[in-house]
Specification:
Order of helices and strands: HHHEEHHH
Structural class: mainly alpha
CATH architecture of the domain at 9-70: Orthogonal Bundle
CATH class of the domain at 9-70: Mainly Alpha
Number of helices: 6
Radius of gyration: 20 Å
Low-confidence stretches: none
Strand content: 5-15%
Length: 137
């Protein structure tokens, strides 16, 4: 099986539209992107064709209209990208990755609460994994 391709910055913008909508036409994507990016509809169409060749999106026909959907969900794509960043840029050092992110901006109160929950879950899961190893024959 071929290695999954990470989207470029512009492809990621298109994927965000598709993730939010579930599926969309070239025109739908264009209408949403043009509100925040300088882009023309033909460029969106070209990107979607390239993204389909890369396996990032697929389409179905409705009459003569192509309806595009993302091949992978947001979480699958972002997890793969995060894993590659962690491995390539930080040699697997999760604490350095988190420190780098925290140095970019101060997290909101809600983000800090969510991070605390994630850390507590990670600690609880690590304890469960350790106990399983100890009780294994």
């Amino acid at each position: 099986m071929a290695e999954k391709v990470n989207p470029t910055e512009r492809e990621l913008e298109i994927l965000k539209v598709l993730w939010d909508r579930g599926e969309a036409t070239v025109r739908d994507v264009y209408e949403e992107l043009r509100q925040r990016l300088r882009i023309v509809q033909n460029t969106v169409q070209a990107f979607l064709r390239t993204m389909e060749e890369k396996g990032l999106v697929s389409h179905r026909l409705e009459g003569r209209t192509f309806i595009y959907q993302p091949t992978y969900q947001r979480q699958q794509t972002t997890q793969r990208m995060a894993e590659q960043l962690l491995t390539r840029a930080f040699d697997g050092a999760m604490d350095q990755l988190v420190q780098s992110v925290l140095s970019l901006r101060q997290p909101t109160k809600d983000e800090l609460t969510r991070l605390e929950v994630l850390l507590a879950e990670a600690k609880a899961n690590k304890g469960k994994a350790s106990r399983k190893k100890e009780s294994a024959p």
